[in-house]
Amino acid sequence: MSTTHVQIAAHVEQVWQTDILPALHEYIAIPCVSAMFDPQWAEHGHLHRAIGLIERWCRTRAVAGLSVEVITLPGRTPMIVMEVPAFGAAGTARPDDTVVLYGHLDKQPEMTGWRDGLGPWMPVLDGDRLYGRGGADDGYSAFASMLAIEAAQHAGLSHTRCIVLIEASEESGSPDLPAYLHALADRISSPSLVLCLDSGCLDYERLWATTSLRGMISAQLRVEILTEGVHSGEASGVVASSFRILRGLLDRIENVETGELRLPELHVEIPSDRRAQSADTAIDFTIADHLPFVDGAGPTTDDATEQLLRQTWRPTLSVTGVDGIPPLDQAGNVLRPTTAITLSIRLPPTCEAAVAYAALERVLLADPPYGARVTLTHPHHADGWNAPSFAPWLQHALRDASEATFGLPSRAFGEGGSIPFMGMLAKMFPGAQFVVTGVLGPGSNAHGPNEYLHVPSAKHVTAVLAHVLDAHARRA
Ligand SMILES: [Zn+2]
């Protein structure tokens, strides 16, 4: 390790321990769920409290030239915009060069199943893990981004002009982000590097760069057959169950035996470099080993490469919500009038989400069985993203910084999740390099119960970013 690496590591460690962890405890305690889950977010004020906390924290940092603003466009969730002018000889030599650092502060809702002694709004530090909603997804990002810049300055490294964007609508699909990107277009101009701290990692041993993200579709599928529920002794057999009709509709889009989705519009040709990357990662990594199966249960395939491809390049369906069905202890013998579900479909990175949605709508709404009323509402779809190849300077910077901080060189992988923001930025800035990384690794369980932030990894990622900022300013 060079002196600089030691200096950065020490500064990052100290600030994380004394300043960031206490702030993150405070942040986790705020139920600032995304607007989609809290339509009255403005009255409740939780998002504003989280914004205030991050804004105050950032304002106190020893970062040369730092400006911190909270911008609110009418009818939108606010956005924190922080700007730091170029620093150091290499940075100031590139006056037009800009790095964008992105994160979000809104959260997923509570979810059930938290272990005793843990809870979504209850920060608990247990060894390396800081439990609670939003610490890892994505509350740490604002603090880590700001500290990476601070650490680079503190160690006498360089960086170009940096703009840190912390949005508050990501978990709702980033509906407010395009308006802000548009409003800030002059200030953002054309960044040459985008750093996004909202992604995952396959282990906590090295830096993982995300090279693709899945797109997604969500919508509510509703089947109505009666105007009101009727005694099942009277109606069943004559009236089709709305549940059975719904099952039939699902069979049109998904093979119930294999889980394979049937619509060609949802599939893409998997690029050969991504297949090779999956095969590489599969040598010492099997996704299924890190998932909480019940005793006796196992994955859809034992082939580790195919698991990686199914999690990144093949479309999948999850049913994430249900309506029209009472809970078990209130189930009477009635033929229910309606059954509705929320469909959540993950799409391959290069699939066109709008085309996929149109195909889905066409197939689900065609020829409704028994003339039932079938509707598909609340549609939302977003394209995925497939990264441009790393420039050599970035490839080297990631490898070396990961080796110096984590002890192992970096690796790249496809992420199963979606970050709508990435698709938007990739389209807006086709010339930029992207480092998409994060700490959502094995067991961290973002969106589920028992979410935790793996603190050592968050520190290491922060240090790596400081080095990447410097390498970016110094690149040929
Ligand atoms: Zn996130």
What features would you describe in this structure?
With 476 residues, the protein is α+β, with helices and mostly antiparallel strands. It folds into two domains: 3-213 and 385-474, Aminopeptidase (3-Layer(aba) Sandwich); 215-267 and 314-382, Alpha-Beta Plaits (2-Layer Sandwich), CATH 3.30.70. Helices cover 36% and strands 20% of the residues. The protein is built from 15 helices and 18 strands. It has helices spanning 3-28, 41-44, 46-59, 88-92, 135-154, 177-183, 185-188, 232-235, 242-253, 272-282, 304-312, 353-365, 392-405, 420-428, 455-474; strands spanning 67-71, 79-84, 98-104, 124-126, 129-131, 161-167, 193-196, 208-213, 215-224, 230-231, 316-323, 334-335, 338-347, 373-382, 385-386, 411-415, 433-436, 452-454. Helix 1 packs antiparallel against helix 5. The longest helix has 26 residues, at 3-28. The protein is globular, with a radius of gyration of 24 Å. The model has no long low-confidence stretch (mean pLDDT 95). Zinc ion (ZN) binds at residues 104, 137-138, 170, 198.
Chart the SSEs and their pairings.
Layout: H1 3-28, H2 41-44, H3 46-59, E1 67-71, E2 79-84, H4 88-92, E3 98-104, E4 124-126, E5 129-131, H5 135-154, E6 161-167, H6 177-183, H7 185-188, E7 193-196, E8 208-213, E9 215-224, E10 230-231, H8 232-235, H9 242-253, H10 272-282, H11 304-312, E11 316-323, E12 334-335, E13 338-347, H12 353-365, E14 373-382, E15 385-386, H13 392-405, E16 411-415, H14 420-428, E17 433-436, E18 452-454, H15 455-474
Parallel strand pairs: 3-6, 3-7, 7-17, 8-16
Antiparallel strand pairs: 1-2, 2-6, 4-5, 5-18, 8-15, 9-13, 9-14, 10-12, 11-13
The protein binds zinc ion.
